[in-house]
């Protein structure tokens, strides 16, 4: 498979992942699927916008660039034949780096949020939202989840959505890392599967 085709496949994969990350982050603004009474009731890590900023906004640009490489890396980029396919592939490495930063940011925020646990009302918090768990101790002991009295199902909600962000962020990191390697190969070799007559 030529470098342009491979990059296009990566771009096609990254777009739905970015949309899913956006949706997961938005859903986290509704603890347990309910509207929060005030912003202080929402887990702090949600406000870091890992899924919206990191895995979505910073991922859309690399994805679009990867999608366009099939056309750009053969006979020039952006309609300019003098630009060259090797420059287009080199350009993709920079955007893959941006994607790596965004996905890495989302991964780290999600890991911290999972380890810290959700913000919820407990029997001893007098109706205020607190963090009842420490250092991920609730992950291996689901009987502790009963400490969260409200919102209903907040631990499952928190853990499921942040785990999805964590996994999708990891997948995005891997895909962008593949494009860095693909971009280096395309920059050095200029492999274009015979485009423009000579494939060089």
Describe it.
This protein is an all-alpha fold and 200 residues long. It has one domain. Helices cover 60% and strands 2% of the residues. The protein contains 4 helices and 2 strands, in the order αααββα. The chain has helices at 3-27, 50-75, 85-116, 154-189; strands at 120-121, 129-130. A two-stranded antiparallel sheet has the order 1-2. A hairpin with a 7-residue loop joins strand 1 and strand 2 (129-130). The chain is elongated, with a radius of gyration of 21 Å. The two termini are 15 Å apart. The relative contact order is 0.20. Mean pLDDT is 86; it is low at 73-83 and 194-200.
Total number of beta strands: 2
Q: What's the helical proportion of residues?
A: 55-70%
N-to-C span: 15 Å
Total count of helical runs of at least 4 residues: 4
Shape designation: elongated
Q: Could you say which structural class the secondary elements and strand pairing correspond to?
A: mainly alpha
Strand order of the largest sheet: 1-2
The average pLDDT is: 86
SSE pattern, N- to C-terminal? HHHEEH
Beta-strand portion reads under 5%
Largest sheet: 2 strands, antiparallel
Tally the structural domains: 1
Low-pLDDT stretches are: 73-83, 194-200
Summarize the structure.
The chain has about 200 residues and is an all-alpha fold. It has helices spanning about 5-25, 50-75, 85-115, 155-190; strands at about 120, 130. Its main location: membrane.
């Amino acid at each position: 498979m030529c470098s342009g085709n491979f990059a296009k496949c990566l771009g096609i994969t990254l777009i739905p992942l970015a949309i899913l990350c956006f949706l997961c982050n938005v859903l986290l603004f509704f603890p347990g699927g309910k509207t929060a009474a005030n912003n202080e009731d929402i887990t702090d890590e949600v406000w870091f916008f890992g899924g919206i900023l990191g895995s979505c906004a910073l991922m859309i640009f690399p994805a679009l660039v990867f999608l366009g490489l099939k056309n750009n890396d053969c006979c020039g980029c952006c309609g300019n034949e003098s630009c060259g396919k090797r420059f287009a592939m080199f350009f993709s490495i920079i955007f893959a780096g941006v994607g790596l930063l965004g996905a890495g940011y989302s991964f780290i925020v999600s890991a911290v949020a999972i380890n810290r646990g959700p913000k919820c009302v407990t029997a001893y918090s007098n109706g205020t939202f607190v963090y009842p768990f420490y250092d991920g101790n609730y992950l291996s002991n689901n009987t502790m989840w009963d400490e969260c009295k409200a919102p209903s199902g907040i631990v499952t909600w928190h853990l499921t959505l942040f785990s999805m962000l964590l996994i999708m962020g990891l997948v995005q990191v891997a895909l962008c890392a593949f494009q860095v390697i693909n971009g280096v190969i395309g920059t050095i070799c200029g492999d274009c599967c015979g485009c423009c007559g000579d494939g060089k």
